[in-house]
Design brief:
single chain, alpha+beta, Glutaredoxin, Glutathione S-transferase Yfyf (Class Pi), Chain A, domain 2, 2 domains, 9 helices, globular
Length: about 220
């Protein structure tokens, strides 16, 4: 049995999208955002109080990009990973982790200090600085997409899910104004995929059915 704990539009959307692309059966548990504040019993499942939490048998994972890699490796026949002997393996790993460590991290500070904190704790300068940081880190994506439809192996992989979520977050918090044309075209390709559309529909359906409460403000 596979179980994914998720908040609407949070980082846990990465493994949700991955599961839908793979066509796997799973249980989706949708929590209010942030779960550490609005779903205290969740600490019994994940002491961090964060999403995602992915459980499969005795495996328990809390890092969104790592879960995507785990699922790609467990289901190589679905073609969402890249083998270690493939010349594109290094690029695949690089962009799989670039999406979270380099592109999503600065956005969390923009989100916190522009949106989540009460007015007296908002930090416009911090938010502006990290918005510029994010846009600067898009240079690598701009370059790669100038010569390919996807970020690794010339095909859609879990690395595109990792980067794609970072772009999804950027669009939702208004950081997409400086997207290059190739990045906008890339986002259109990703968001048109059946797996992405199914993931959106699944989270909406389950959030409603489970009365999940506040969603991630993205």
């Amino acid at each position: 049995m596979r179980t994914l704990w998720h908040c609407v539009n949070a980082r846990s959307f990465r493994p949700l999208w991955m599961l839908e692309e793979l066509g796997l059966d799973y249980e989706l548990k949708v929590l209010p955002f942030p779960p550490r504040a609005f779903a205290k019993p969740y600490f019994d499942e994940n002491p961090l109080g964060t999403v995602p939490l992915y459980v499969e048998g005795g495996t328990r994972m809390t890092e969104s990009s790592a879960i995507c890699q785990f699922l790609a490796d467990r289901h190589p026949e679905r073609g969402l990973g890249v083998g270690v002997a493939d010349p594109a393996y290094g690029a695949f790993l690089n962009f799989l982790h670039h999406g979270e460590a380099t592109l999503t991290f600065p956005q969390t500070l923009v989100l916190r200090y522009r949106v989540l904190e009460p007015d007296e704790r908002k930090q416009p300068q911090v938010a502006d600085d990290y918005a510029k940081w994010f846009n600067g880190r898009l240079k690598l994506i701009n370059t790669v997409l100038g010569g390919s439809d996807f970020v690794a192996a010339n095909r859609f992989t879990a690395a595109d899910i990792s980067v794609g979520y970072a772009l999804m977050l950027a669009r939702s918090i208004g950081l997409d104004a400086e997207f290059a044309p190739q990045v906008n075209a890339y986002w259109t390709r990703l968001s048109s995929r059946e797996g992405f559309v199914r993931a959106l529909a699944r989270q909406e359906r389950e959030a409603k059915a489970q009365a999940a409460g506040p969603a991630a403000p993205v």
